[in-house]
Design a protein that fits this description.
The protein has helices spanning about 20-25, 35-40, 100-110; strands at about 10-15, 30, 55-60, 80-90, 95-100, 120-125, 130, 135-140, 145-150. By secondary structure, the chain is an alpha+beta fold. Strand 8 and strand 9 (about 145-150) form a beta hairpin. About 30% of the residues are buried.
Length: about 150
């Protein structure tokens, strides 16, 4: 069975590419409607993005390991050599946050259960997340199979 890396356990995180991380820094926030999403086909949007939410990984509980499809994204996005992990401060997003278990409940009760959802692992935020809410930035480098602080 796959395991959540220790560097990610117990945290709320947003995963992105290095290119998108630069866009986030320039904008000053993680957007609910990033340019990369606006240029994509809505049919391919995940359950959360189809509701204009930001996909977050909620690794605060051990249930995340139940989702095998999650490991195409963890520890790094399978199509990328580098994945930037942004640790999010819960207190700054709690009023607009759905936990991984809340997402599961909403997904099961939705009219779009065919939309992709990382069950028991995917949380969501339904407002832009300011840079000030980011506690730490790590980069996972696939060729080295390790996490490093992002500089």
């Amino acid at each position: 069975m796959f395991q959540i890396p220790n560097e990610l356990k117990g945290k709320i995180l947003h995963a992105t590419t290095t290119q998108n991380w630069h866009t986030i820094k320039e904008a000053g926030f993680i957007s609910t409607t990033p340019p990369s999403l606006l240029n994509s086909n809505p049919i391919s949007h995940s359950f959360i993005t189809s509701m204009n939410g930001i996909c977050l990984f909620d690794f605060r509980t051990p249930n995340a390991k139940k989702c095998d499809t999650l490991f195409s994204h963890v520890p790094g996005i399978s199509s990328q050599n580098e994945t930037v992990w942004l640790e999010i401060e819960f207190e700054s997003i709690k009023s607009d946050f759905w936990s991984a278990e809340q997402v599961v409940d909403e997904w099961r009760n939705s009219s779009n259960p065919h939309k992709r959802c990382y069950l028991h692992a995917e949380g969501a935020c339904f407002s832009d997340i300011p840079i000030s809410a980011i506690k730490a930035v790590m980069i996972y480098e696939r060729t080295q199979d390790k996490f490093n602080p992002f500089k």
